[in-house]
# Entry
Amino acid sequence: MTPEALISAFVTLFVIIDPIGIAPLFLALTAERSAAERRKIAARSVLIAVVVLVAFAVGGLWLLQAMGISLPAFRVAGGILLFWISFEMVFEQRTRRKETSAERSVAEEHPDDIAAVPLAIPLMAGPGAITAVILLAGEPGGGWIELAWVIAVIVSVLAVTLAILLVAVPIGHLMGKTVRTVVTRLLGVILAALAVQFVADGVLALIA
# Structure
């Protein structure tokens, strides 16, 4: 992978996972936990998300082939999905959807399972992130070396996510709602451009 491709992959996955947006939800879900428990929950949720996303990066293309879905078709469909996520980010709909999803998951699951549900799935390793890693792993000319780079990007993004969750309390004090909103909207615009690129590449591949 070229440095430009690595940066693009990192930015794509970082924007989709949105650790800055997850931090307030993490604080709300662990409000009654001690600092040590918060650290354990953060580490466990990130580890689960890494396992899920790496599994889809490695086996996602095989799954598509088994279902008879071509990569260009999936690239178009995935680009449309990512564009919808960017639309939600720009118009402040994604945060509310995440909050609703988290509340529903906590209500349905045992409180001790919040590391897996909803933190790891679907907040970190949700449909958007899974789609992104399959698309990144399926880039033209991709081989085992490129797949290793994609896995490295996954681990890097989730390592940053873990770091943000571990300092979520001071970040919550420093960043007000207005700052989070501005950052989310800017990241949404970047994701929209990346999504359009995915769709364009998929359409060109289908035509070819």
